[in-house]
């Protein structure tokens, strides 16, 4: 079939909207009509050329929601008409990683997914002249129709709106999961969130769910304060307005350091500040942000010797096929909020404008509606 897609032809250039060829699903695969997709900082990072795994031409996008149109041979858990959310972290439920409760990093299709291919080592997308186009994070939601492995799709309830639940495919789950699954934050915790964008706001939302006593938000952009406060931020710190040492300021503000700190900026300098603002003896710092290729983190080892720990999280530690339908229920039952964070919607033709809004810091989440 043919489908309309935003193709990342080369790094550093706007995506091009075009018709592309899409082959049907092979064994174990599913054809999905994407109804809505969010624009995440990570798509922008890959398009910029800073992503070490980035390869072109490709169809980016990993935060979508849609409907199953066709299933390939051997698919048993999904049928035509099911509503689904694509998973860039799949859940096969049988690999060593899926069987280990300490991780969500299913490895079943890791090699081919990282190379932009389906599990059989080929792509389903091509240009009209036959040039292959790579998949992205196994999802490629910047195409109206896409093919995914069955293990990379969470089946969700049919009454949930696509234009909101697409955000659960990355930002919501990553932020809330970092608190609930990775930090396992206790009632009464004091925490600091660095970066109040699409991920950081959901960390704040997760901290509120956890029963935090203090939620400090740190961002260079004061325009983020209103939304962060609405989601539960109790104190705001703009590093550019702090006189003297930022770590010392944050340690004092939290009464000795935070129980948990979260980096949602991808800046390695911020990651160091986050680690050092964690409480001596027990504070944990969780890295969510993805740093540019080749970047390294550093601190004095004594920071760890004295009881702080440094951790990381992908997709909020969530097991997608199991956890994502539950998060959709949380949204539908009013336990979490999504709507105010979707600040802009647009047709696929305007997708590059959505990334311009992100660059200017004017959006939280832009969503493309097909
Ligand atoms: P975003 O651009 O919406 O938000 C980033 C925020 O950080 C902005 O508000 C910006 O003003 C702030 N910021 C930037 N530099 C800062 C600094 N030095 N000090 C304080 N604040 C600063 O991005 P996002 O969509 O929220 O993504 C955040 C990060 O999370 C990105 O690196 C993204 O790639 C990563 N991410 C990770 C995962 C994962 O599974 N680990 C999933 C999705 C996104
Ligand atoms: O190596 O097993 C693996 C999986 C690595 C992918 C983890 C992705 C999380 C960070 C990227 C942000 C996605 C939006
Ligand atoms: Zn697995």
UniProtKB/TrEMBL annotation:
<dbReference type="InterPro" id="IPR002328">
    <property type="entry name" value="ADH_Zn_CS"/>
</dbReference>
<dbReference type="Pfam" id="PF08240">
    <property type="entry name" value="ADH_N"/>
</dbReference>
<keyword id="KW-0560">Oxidoreductase</keyword>
<dbReference type="Pfam" id="PF00107">
    <property type="entry name" value="ADH_zinc_N"/>
</dbReference>
<dbReference type="GO" id="GO:0005829">
    <property type="term" value="C:cytosol"/>
</dbReference>
<keyword id="KW-0862">Zinc</keyword>
<feature type="domain" description="Alcohol dehydrogenase-like C-terminal">
    <location>
        <begin position="198"/>
        <end position="330"/>
    </location>
</feature>
<dbReference type="InterPro" id="IPR011032">
    <property type="entry name" value="GroES-like_sf"/>
</dbReference>
<feature type="domain" description="Alcohol dehydrogenase-like N-terminal">
    <location>
        <begin position="27"/>
        <end position="156"/>
    </location>
</feature>
<dbReference type="InterPro" id="IPR013149">
    <property type="entry name" value="ADH-like_C"/>
</dbReference>
<dbReference type="InterPro" id="IPR036291">
    <property type="entry name" value="NAD(P)-bd_dom_sf"/>
</dbReference>
<dbReference type="InterPro" id="IPR013154">
    <property type="entry name" value="ADH-like_N"/>
</dbReference>
<dbReference type="InterPro" id="IPR014183">
    <property type="entry name" value="ADH_3"/>
</dbReference>
<dbReference type="GO" id="GO:0106321">
    <property type="term" value="F:S-(hydroxymethyl)glutathione dehydrogenase (NADP+) activity"/>
</dbReference>
<protein>
    <recommendedName>
        <fullName>S-(hydroxymethyl)glutathione dehydrogenase</fullName>
        <ecNumber>1.1.1.284</ecNumber>
    </recommendedName>
</protein>
<keyword id="KW-0479">Metal-binding</keyword>
<dbReference type="GO" id="GO:0106322">
    <property type="term" value="F:S-(hydroxymethyl)glutathione dehydrogenase (NAD+) activity"/>
</dbReference>
<dbReference type="GO" id="GO:0046294">
    <property type="term" value="P:formaldehyde catabolic process"/>
</dbReference>
<keyword id="KW-0520">NAD</keyword>
<dbReference type="GO" id="GO:0004022">
    <property type="term" value="F:alcohol dehydrogenase (NAD+) activity"/>
</dbReference>
<comment type="similarity">
    <text>Belongs to the zinc-containing alcohol dehydrogenase family. Class-III subfamily.</text>
</comment>
<dbReference type="GO" id="GO:0008270">
    <property type="term" value="F:zinc ion binding"/>
</dbReference>
């Amino acid at each position: 079939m043919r489908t309309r897609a935003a193709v990342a032809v080369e790094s550093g250039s706007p995506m091009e909207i075009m018709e592309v060829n899409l082959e049907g699903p092979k064994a174990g695969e599913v054809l999905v009509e994407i109804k809505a997709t969010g624009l995440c900082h990570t798509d922008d990072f890959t398009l910029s050329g800073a992503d070490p795994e980035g390869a072109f031409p490709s169809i980016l996008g990993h935060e979508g929601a849609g409907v199953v149109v066709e299933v390939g041979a051997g698919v048993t858990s999904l049928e035509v008409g099911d509503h689904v959310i694509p998973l860039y972290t799949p859940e096969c439920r049988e690999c060593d990683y899926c069987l280990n409760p300490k991780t969500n990093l299913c490895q079943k299709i890791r090699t081919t997914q990282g190379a932009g291919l389906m599990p059989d080592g080929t792509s389903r997308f091509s240009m009209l002249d036959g040039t292959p186009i790579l998949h992205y994070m196994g999802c490629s939601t910047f195409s109206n129709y896409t093919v995914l492995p069955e293990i990379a799709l969470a089946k969700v309830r049919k009454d949930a709106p696509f234009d909101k639940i697409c955000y659960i495919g990355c930002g919501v789950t990553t932020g809330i999961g970092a608190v609930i699954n990775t930090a396992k934050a206790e009632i009464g915790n004091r925490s600091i969130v660095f970066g109040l964008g699409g991920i950081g706001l959901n960390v704040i939302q997760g901290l509120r769910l956890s029963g935090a006593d203090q939620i400090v938000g740190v961002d260079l952009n004061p325009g983020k304060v209103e939304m962060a406060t609405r989601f539960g931020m109790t104190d705001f710190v703009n590093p550019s307005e702090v006189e003297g040492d930022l770590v010392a300021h944050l340690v004092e503000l939290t009464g000795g350091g935070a129980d948990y700190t979260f980096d949602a900026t991808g800046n390695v300098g911020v990651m160091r500040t986050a680690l050092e603002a964690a409480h001596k003896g027990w504070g944990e710092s969780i890295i969510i942000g993805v740093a540019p290729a080749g970047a390294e983190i550093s601190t004095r080892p004594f920071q760890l010797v004295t009881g702080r720990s440094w951790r990381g999280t992908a997709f909020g530690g969530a097991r997608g096929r199991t956890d994502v339908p539950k998060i959709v229920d949380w949204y539908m039952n009013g336990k979490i909020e999504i709507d105010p964070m979707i600040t802009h919607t647009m047709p696929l033709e305007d997708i590059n404008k959505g990334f311009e809004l992100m660059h200017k810091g004017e959006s939280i989440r832009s969503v493309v509606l097909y």
